[in-house]
Design goal:
- The chain is an all-alpha fold and 539 residues long.
- The chain has 20 helices and four strands.
- Helices cover 75% and strands 2% of the residues.
- The strands form two sheets. A two-stranded antiparallel ribbon has the order 1-2. Strands 3-4 form a two-stranded antiparallel ribbon.
- The longest helix has 39 residues, at 2-40.
- The chain starts with a helix and ends in a 9-residue tail after the last helix.
């Protein structure tokens, strides 16, 4: 018991600032959403009109929650509940991998196992730590909603809905740590499960059955394949159902119990998915630092490229497929005609999906630069820098590969968009819009690339949390700022929203030159500062 308490305190101490950022950020997002909704959609009529429009446009439904009515609280949770849950999911899966597989990589787990704590107590302490973190997130988010004057029942169901999804991904992260040989592989597996289940929940809602007044949707069976779908079925401020949240918690705890059982018998350093054997001789590409970086990161880059391919495919094909389904309802058909009169639905789908693509490309770039921090912390960067490779050239390898990752992800999306058009015999003129918006997102994602590199130079120990925080902040501002009623200048502070895009038959360059100047200035400052920077080991 003393070992358990000691390890739990150690985990809380290590993560205190990082978890505080996740928890407070999620609660603040909930509060700001309420403020934005009351400013932009203050009347029942406004909310009913937006719900009807969203239900008529399945592209919107993919990235929102489950419509449950136009009352203030239910409408707000339709807009934001999936993203409160995704915050909890990222926090929990990263926490689980950090204290299991990563500690095992660094040799900490074996040392702890030599004490009376044994092999399983560290995992149990991680489970308790994750449960406490999600409880804190649930409580603070609930209190943030309560402070706005919303009903107590719905506020607590919403907060604990996000926390319950987090518990599920705590279990998923723990299992990923047992399956994969490295923390990088475990995090990648958990993130891909997160993204796929998030998409499944959105598809399940988009393919659901709307009520006659277009204010509520009964989800399709696809929703029940996703923890996000389970959380959304609680319908805060409408049904306030608790049993789907119990399902999330039970499933997460079952996965946690399975991970404890595996940990008790698995050899240290081993994994259920064996590591691939390397070649006996190095290829010519490993003669320089850039080739080495590509070898270390190509797996994750190809994973992000697969996400880009799917995003492009959805951008040009799914909106049409789902529109065919909803046009069977005359009222929905009338709304679709209004939307089309104000601009092409297909063009709108491209813009929405490619802004999401900008986030994916930025994630690929940030992950690549964060790899430099991992190599530095593990001591392997020192071996490279002991050769004639200087500091600037070493970091430049990560920046070059990060930019290549951005281009690969966007190019994959363009290919996916072409496949979507070909699959439906669509309008090939849409590829011009795809090219413009895709090129703009290359520029936008490059801002995150150089920003993360600058953080790595100035404050290496916060490179990983701060790099991902910048991406999440941009997603909130760029994708949700208009719904929150944020001013245009604040929305366009997010590079994905300031990037060049299409506007009817023309091209809106928006903040192109500002983005290019920012990339040049930040990149130059990073190179200059890196010349005198000392290595910063872990700790």
């Amino acid at each position: 018991m003393n070992a358990f308490a000691t390890l739990l305190r150690e985990r809380i101490r290590r993560d205190r600032w990082q978890l505080l950022m996740w928890i407070v950020g999620t609660a603040l997002l909930a509060y700001l959403t309420y403020v934005g909704v009351t400013q932009s959609y203050g009347t029942q009529q406004d909310r009913e009109a937006l719900l009807a429009t969203a239900i008529a446009n399945p592209v919107i439904m993919l990235f929102r929650g489950l419509p449950s009515g136009a009352d203030e609280g239910a409408f707000m949770l339709f807009l934001i509940l999936p993203f409160l849950a995704i915050d909890a999911a990222f926090m929990s899966s990263f926490l689980a991998v950090r204290h299991t597989r990563m500690d095992e990589e660094l040799g900490r787990t074996e040392l702890v196992a030599a004490t009376p704590a044994g092999r399983t107590v560290p995992v149990l302490a991680t489970v308790a730590h994750g449960l406490l973190a999600n409880l804190g997130l649930a409580l603070l988010t609930s209190l943030a909603l309560l402070s706005t004057g919303l009903a107590a029942g719905g506020s607590f169901v919403a907060g604990f809905g996000a926390g319950a999804v987090g518990v599920t991904f705590l279990g998923i992260g723990l299992i990923a740590g047992q399956l994969m040989r490295t923390s990088r592989g475990a995090n990648a597996l958990a993130v891909w499960i997160l993204l796929l289940t998030f998409l499944l929940a959105g598809l399940g809602n988009a393919l659901g059955t709307p009520t006659a007044d277009l204010q509520r949707i009964e989800s399709s069976w696809l929703t029940w394949l996703s923890p996000f779908g389970w959380g959304e079925q609680s319908r805060p401020f409408a049904d306030d159902a608790l049993w789907p949240l119990v399902l999330c918690v039970v499933f997460g705890l079952a996965l946690a119990a399975a991970s404890v059982a595996i940990q008790s018998t698995r050899d240290f350093g081993a994994s259920l998915v064996p590591e691939r054997r390397g070649r006996p001789d190095a290829s010519a590409s490993l003669a320089g630092p850039t080739g080495l970086v590509w070898r270390l990161t190509r797996g994750s880059i190809l994973g992000w490229a697969a996400g880009g391919l799917l995003t492009g495919l959805l951008a040009t094909s799914l909106a049409g497929v789902l529109a065919d389904v909803v046009t069977e309802l005359p009222s929905v058909q009338a709304i679709l005609e209004v939307i089309s009169a104000n601009g092409s639905i297909a063009q709108g789908a491209v813009i929405i999906f490619f802004e999401m693509l900008g986030i994916l490309a930025a994630c690929a770039a940030v992950q690549t630069v964060c790899r430099a921090r991992s190599e530095e912390a593990h001591g392997t960067a020192e071996a490279v820098l002991a050769t004639p490779v200087d500091r600037v050239r070493w970091l430049s390898g990560y920046v070059v590969v990060g930019f290549a990752a951005i281009v690969i992800v966007v190019a994959s999306a363009v290919v996916g968009a072409a496949l979507g058009i070909a699959g439906r015999d669509g309008d090939w003129s849409l590829m011009g819009d795809v090219a413009v918006v895709g090129s703009g997102q290359v520029v936008a994602a490059s801002v995150f690339l150089v920003l993360t590199a600058l953080v790595f130079v100035l404050a290496p120990r916060v490179t990983i949390p701060l790099g991902w925080t910048l991406v999440m902040l941009a997603m909130v501002l760029g994708l949700f700022g208009p719904l929150f009623g944020f001013p245009d200048w604040l929305v366009h502070a997010a590079p994905i929203a300031a990037a060049p895009t299409v506007n009817g038959d023309g091209v809106d360059l928006q903040g192109l030159w500002g983005l290019l100047v920012a990339i040049a200035v930040i990149g130059g400052a990073t190179a200059a500062l890196m010349r005198r920077r000392e290595l910063a080991p872990a700790g």
